[in-house]
Amino acid sequence: MRKVVTVAVPGAPLLELGIPSRLFGAARNDAGEPLYEVELASADGAGEIRTAEGLTLAAPAPLDRLADADVVIISSSESLLDPSECDRLAGAVRGPVVAGGQAVAGRRIASICSGAFLLGSLGLLDGLTVTTHWRHSELLARRHPAAKVAPDALFIDEGPVLTSAGVAAGIDLCLHLIRSDHGVRVANKVSRACIVAPFREGGQAQYIEAPVGGVGGPVTAGMVQWLLQHLDQHHTTASMAARVHLSPRTFERRFLAECGTTPGRWLIQARVQRAKEYLEGTDLSVEAIAQAVGMGTGANLRSHFRRCTGQTLQNYRKLFSGAGADAAAGAGAGAAAGAGHR
User: Fold this and answer.
1) Rounded to the nearest 5°, which phi and psi values hold at 71?
2) Residues in contact with 38: Cβ distance below 8 Å, sequence separation at least 6, in sequence order
3) pTM (global) more than 0.85
């Protein structure tokens, strides 16, 4: 069982504090046993946290529990926009989290929204590509010029350090971590249990008009579900546009507004996700999987899979199918490094 500790910063939004507990807490193996132990600690060691909404929550885990954590998640807070407050809290959590100027070996440390500022005060952003809520991107770039800030990404995985945009992007980040540890089948079970979209790309735009996953907009509501049921078929922008009685140009513009990505890129990602399910749960050959997900040939599937995940088909199957799934708990995170941002 892996341990996840959320560090609650004073003034953190209640919703963002609950995201890691809800998602990691819903991850179960086939026997129904929990895969994560989830705890909440206050950044200043006070044992409780006053949220942005004015509620006081117990945060009983002492800060020294961070030393045993496999994943540390830093919550957001408007207070972190104040450099002195950010530095004060960084001093409180630095010991258990940072060693030699880097995240403690074998541990992943992630931030939601403005939590990236605390990672910056810990010295963990230098030389990395990172993100935060688009409203704070310019400030983060000014405060930490040695980091490359990507203002439009949902989340970015840079190995031991991960950053995400606000609120819903924290859901995407946690699902990404669960996929990295235990594969797409477990992550999809969590998404179904929590009634959230199973995947959004890390590089997908923050500026979306529809709910999480883009499945509730007037154009994508039916189209996305239909595509997921017919991934094995050939689709073009023109053929998809014809189904919703729009011109290709209008359809692509509306799809981008509702899903935050183009129809073609969304389709590739959906096919890669489906291929992961086949690799985890079947013995089908690469060529058969390519046909089943609409990639056509094994060579085409291999190319897109490697580009989207940073892994080979063979390595992914070894990690996440059968006995290999046990090994994935130790190796999956490193293998997935960088997959969240392209």
Assistant:
1) -135, 130
2) 3, 4, 5, 6, 20, 21, 24, 25
3) no
| Count of structural domains within the chain | 2
Q: What is the spatial distance between Cα 168 and Cα 222, in angstroms, rounded to a whole number?
A: 22
Q: 280 and 320 in contact (C-beta within 8 Å)?
A: yes
For residue 89, the SS3 value is: helix
Assess whether 178 and 232 both reside in one domain: no
- Strand 161-164 relative to strand 102-103: parallel, antiparallel, unpaired? unpaired
Place of tokens 């003034």: 11
Task: Identify whether 36 is part of a domain.
Answer: yes
Q: Is residue 119 part of a domain?
A: yes
Specify which residues 39 forms β-bridges with.
Answer: 5
Cβ–Cβ under 8 Å, residues 15 and 167 = yes
> Any idea which of 113-127, 150-164, 198-212, 227-241 has the lowest mean pLDDT?
198-212
Output the CA–CA distances (angstroms, integers) from residue 219 to 160, 209, 211, in the order listed: 38, 12, 13
Domain that holds residue 134: 2-182
Summarised one tens digit per residue, pLDDT across range 17-60 is 999 999 999 999 989 999 999 999 999 989 999 999 999 999 99
pLDDT digits (tens, 9 = 90+) for 276-303: 989 988 999 999 999 999 999 999 999 9
Long-range contacts of 137-142 (CB under 8 A, 24+ apart): 139/81, 140/116
Shared-domain flag, residues 55 and 109 = yes
> Do both 143 and 256 map to the same domain?
no
